[in-house]
Amino acid sequence: MPLVRIDLPATTSSIEAAAVSRAVHQALVDLFSVPQDDLFHVVARRAPGELVCSPSYVGIEHSDKVAFVQIVCSPGRTVGLKEALYARIAADVEAGTGFRADDVIINLVETARENWSFGAGLAHYAVADRQRPAGRPGS
Amino acid sequence: MPLVRIDLPATTSSIEAAAVSRAVHQALVDLFSVPQDDLFHVVARRAPGELVCSPSYVGIEHSDKVAFVQIVCSPGRTVGLKEALYARIAADVEAGTGFRADDVIINLVETARENWSFGAGLAHYAVADRQRPAGRPGS
Amino acid sequence: MPLVRIDLPATTSSIEAAAVSRAVHQALVDLFSVPQDDLFHVVARRAPGELVCSPSYVGIEHSDKVAFVQIVCSPGRTVGLKEALYARIAADVEAGTGFRADDVIINLVETARENWSFGAGLAHYAVADRQRPAGRPGS
After folding, report:
1. Contact C123, B83 (CB under 8 A)
2. How many domains does chain B have?
């Protein structure tokens, strides 16, 4: 994985929602070494009142057009890599959609590699780790 | 953060849904020392069959009017503080809405402080922790 | 708990969505020793474009009819038990619904036993663990 949940305002078009999803995925591919075909997103559009966001926090102003991006992924990335990921997602979402970088809220939740099945009831990373003990950290 | 996901029955009014959200936030502010402007909630209303809840578990009876409250936050709170948070959320939701305290289901998921960006692609807590190694636990 | 989030295509019938939920729950009961009445699911049906899934990953082909199953539960299960859970969920979802086993994507997120309240503002497992230090791992 990652499994990514993206929550956007109801006024977001399908095209723009897809562009947010693509930007998040490409950042994960480029910075977290997530395979290109390791793509599992839930993109929801929320009516007014459903997406509750502070108008301002830690010096960042938020508009009504905010994007919440919650990424459940495997552990092991450095703080520096996480910082690079946030910067890249915010920049690319701003560049490719009508969302401002300031309005991109990101949260990572890390969970063990054995905690994933990508279909057929197999624990793909657990199996890979048994076969290749010094394998790649995976996604 | 926290990033809070609140799932309520479809029959909940907007006003009542907002009251649940406010009660959860104020409890986090008062008990978990979350800043007042650190507010990021997704409030969803679910059709019948979408919100599946046991009629009874560990001696608590649940009606059809249940509230699921999932709070992703930074780690470090004591068990006692978590217990105080649950008690406060349940009491205040019951006091301020039509939900019974027994119908407030709460789950915390803790994730590292470096796992948050509140906009502009910055890892706000990671930066703060570098600048102030003995800083506040944050939210 | 667990608290389970199941995301399915919008074309899934209510009956089929309920069957997926039941299959996931029964697997948790049988393999993770989750009590039968420890049932808390959010089942969402998603419009096209909202459920973004790779057509193929780690050798598994995915159709448009995918099921994302995210299970937040207590820690402590062995890798072998997790593998048995994935296999059982995939097999039973395929047997009882129109979903293929290959299209069942599963993710576990583990969170401390003190991180749950099942109503009335009580931290049920924290209380149980104080009273019975060598108690069952719980759900």
Report:
1. yes
2. 1
Please give the model's pTM, rounded to 2 decimal places.
0.96
Q: Is C23 helix (H, G, I), strand (E, B) or coil?
A: helix
Which range of residues forms the domain containing residue B85?
3-131
CA-based nearest residue to A63, from A99, A38, A110, A90: A99
Q: Touching check for A45 and chain B: CB below 8 Å? A: no
- Min CA distance, A39 vs chain C (Å)? 5
**Which residues on neighbouring strands pair with residue C28, listed in sequence order?**
none
C-alpha span between C50 and A5 (Å, rounded):
10
DSSP letters along A75-116, please?
Answer: S---HHHHHHHHHHHHHHHHHHSS--GGGEEEEEEE--GGGE
At B8, phi and psi to the nearest 5?
Answer: -130, 160
pLDDT value, residue C134: 56
Residue C42 lies in a domain: yes
For testing the chain C interface, which of A37, A42, A43 should be mutated: the one with the most C CBs within 10 Å? A42
Checking if the pLDDT of C136 tops 70, the result is: no
Q: Is position A15 within any domain?
A: yes
Residues of A in contact with C110 (CB under 8 A): 111-112, 115
Residue B138 falls within a domain, yes or no? Answer: no
Quote the distance between the C-alpha of residue A79 and its chain's center: 16
Query: Number of A:B CB contacts under 8 A?
Result: 109
Average pLDDT value for residue range B87-104: 98
Residue ranges of A 23-42 with Cβ closer than 8 A to chain B: none
What is the mean predicted confidence (pLDDT) over C72-89? 97
Q: How confident is the model at residue B132 (pLDDT cuts 50, 70, 90)?
A: confident
Q: Give the residue-averaged pLDDT of B107-132.
A: 95
Does residue B62 fall inside a structural domain? yes
A37 closest CB neighbour out of C7, C57, C86:
C57
CATH number of the domain residue B90 falls in: 3.30.429.10
pLDDT digits (tens, 9 = 90+) for B5-14: 999 999 999 9
* Residue range C23-32: mean pLDDT, rounded: 98
Choose from A64, A66, A78, A86 for mutation: most chain B CBs within 10 A.
A86
